[in-house]
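Q: What structure does this chain adopt?
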Amino acid sequence: MTSIKGAAVALTGAASGIGRALARELAARGADLALADIDEPRLVALADELRQSHQVNISAHRVNVAEEDEIKRFAEAAIRQHPRLSVLINNAGVALQGWFEEMTLADFEWVMSINFWGVVRGTHYFLPHLMAQPEAHIVNLSSIFGLIAPVGQTAYSASKFGVRGFTEALQHELAATSVRVTSVHPGGVATNIANNSRAVKAVDAERKAAASKRFSELAKTTPEQAASVIVEGMLQNKPRVLIGGDARFIDRLQRWLPTGYWRVVAYLNNYPARPGAQK
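A:
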């Protein structure tokens, strides 16, 4: 992208966390926005706030990205209300606490339906319109856990590695078109994703509290900082954006120790060896 001002952006997961910060950052830079989230009250409040503080066109859409028909309707409505729409940011995501042996397939499918299929379907329904634009951009939110795979995060890592693979293949396929594609890998960002994460039945309050505490201690980047890095990366047409010193460290560590990185990560971050075990 050469400029955000005057562009129109479709953004999922806009009501909180990185998505909320992105909406504010983009509106401040003069972009029109089609905002989507399942949390309609917070979404509407954000849209009203941005309309009052910036001279931009804002539309709000209640969307559950786990439902294909809702994503399809969102794409149709967003393009209808913002004919110049040229940016898609697939940001919506959820987290699940629990080891693979403790979860049901329904638990696993819930994460994949939002984190992975939400990205794939959103891209599918917006792509024909984006390819018709003289300049367009797709930004997909993966994670630091799309670079490494921690214990207790089999579903989340599977979804984020999937987003990374999908995005990188899409970059290669669209290289000769007007559409640029960016894969984003945030490290610890101080949002409520850990506190609001779903836990499988075997995860008791103590384990959930310990995981949330570990996340809060590691989450050093603010959502606002993350949003700024993402937008700058998009403007520079970067294929991969790492957010935070932890993400940059993990990226290097995984390259140095592709099969042994977990021993270092587990030691530094006090991960338990098995459910209920103490390091």
